[in-house]
Amino acid sequence: MNQVIETILNHRSIRNYKDQALPEEHLALLVQCAQKAPSSNNGQPVTIIAVTDKTKKAQLAELCGNQPYIAEAGVFFVFCIDFYRGKLACEKTNNEFCITDEFTATVIGTFDAGLAMQNMIVAAESLGYGTVPIGGILNDPQAVISLLEIPAYVFPICGLVVGYPKDYSQVKPRLPLKAVFNRDKYDPNQKTYIDEYDEVMAEYMAERTNGESRRNWSETISRVYRSKGRRNIKQAMENQKFYNH
Amino acid sequence: MNQVIETILNHRSIRNYKDQALPEEHLALLVQCAQKAPSSNNGQPVTIIAVTDKTKKAQLAELCGNQPYIAEAGVFFVFCIDFYRGKLACEKTNNEFCITDEFTATVIGTFDAGLAMQNMIVAAESLGYGTVPIGGILNDPQAVISLLEIPAYVFPICGLVVGYPKDYSQVKPRLPLKAVFNRDKYDPNQKTYIDEYDEVMAEYMAERTNGESRRNWSETISRVYRSKGRRNIKQAMENQKFYNH
């Protein structure tokens, strides 16, 4: 077990931070680590806006569904899919720019942004910081786009809070490894693994709530997945000239 | 500089592998690391199929656009967006299952799969393995789905080759940090950064090709982005019951 694997296995989301800025050189180092993640065709379609301005952090905390730790923690990184540079490259070389005309750019950009963010998470945690990704950035993409002056061909896909933890949450149990670790073909036996996990999570919840709740994973996640999710993402992407047809 | 940051900054893609299997406990450890990445609402919508079967690896090498290292390297991990477990959770709790009816599931799943893969990349490289992500898995998703018996609500989004490197490629220069590291708002000055990077990449190419090519980033990426990309992703996702409207 080396430091890398130890850091990765020790991950938990932190939602309680000291009101304290990160040193500038750490902000740069964290972005540099994110930037080192691979990207499709070396397109590097990811831009990271480090928000440290207190007013903007407070506004973003509200826009993301009133998550106060966005305002409290040292920095809020907004990860953007970025094909604006690709557009400029096409202009410079007199090529048509078509990649955002259909669905591929969205898939590539979203995936590459995920790769980049996880590098930052691991790097930040190795330096002792706490982190939590913020999907709530998609609650109202248009407002985030205006606030951060994000141009066409660029879209804010996920946020990441990084800061000094006030206290450490527990490590949350994951699905049994066999559920997600399949060999040579998809393992259809998922129902069994979910039942197993539901028992583990019921115990975990009981412990965390002093017996008040035994809500398992199926109960928790079905409350999310019975909804169609955020309805405004596709329109907001289209406004930024990502045409997902 | 700790081992985590060193590993991250030292990343390069490896496309030349020894024909040698990884120890079983490393396969499991790598998936476990991937699984520890955060996920939206703890949905854990990622399943990883470790393909070590030689016939299947060879078939996948061909399906991904004749990339021989997929067949040669020890293992080819196929990262899948997985909402099948979510569907089972909804059935178990008598909830409707609606999250894949629209666009959100695709965005969440793709992003979370990216997070998971980067954890695996960093972990693998910390153990001395080489890696390279394979977007070519999207060349013919339907064939991959059949080959790996992937059910509805599950979609193979990206592959990852992991193995014993035969030789190490050079670390490729990235865009200037200021291009991707913006502060409090989007930095519109991207044209200047691209011009800078184009010069760096021209030099890098000249060195790598003994002066035969000075192809810069804009020239390389515009050849990719002048196309609309892979036309069949959306239809293949719809066949798996992801409705991206």
Describe the overall structure:
Two copies of one chain form a homodimer. Chain A is an alpha+beta fold. The first copy, chain A, folds into two domains: 179 residues, NADH Oxidase, CATH 3.40.109.10; 38 residues. Chain A is built from eleven helices and five strands. Chain A has a four-stranded antiparallel beta sheet, sandwiched between helices. In chain A, helix 2 packs across helix 6. The longest helix of chain A has 23 residues. Chain A is globular. Chain A starts with a helix and ends in a 6-residue tail after the last helix. Chains A and B meet through helix 1, helix 2, strand 1, helix 5 and helix 6 of A and helix 1, helix 2, strand 1, helix 5 and helix 6 of B. Strand 1 of chain A pairs parallel with strand 5 of chain B, so a sheet runs across the interface.
Secondary structure layout plus pairing:
Two copies of one chain form a homodimer.
Chain A lengths: L2 H7 L14 H12 L10 E6 L2 H10 L5 H4 L2 E8 L1 H9 L11 H23 L3 E5 L6 H7 L6 E10 L13 H4 E3 L6 H19 L8 H9 L7 H7 L6
Antiparallel strand pairs in A: 1-2, 2-4, 3-4
Helix pairs in contact in A: 2-6
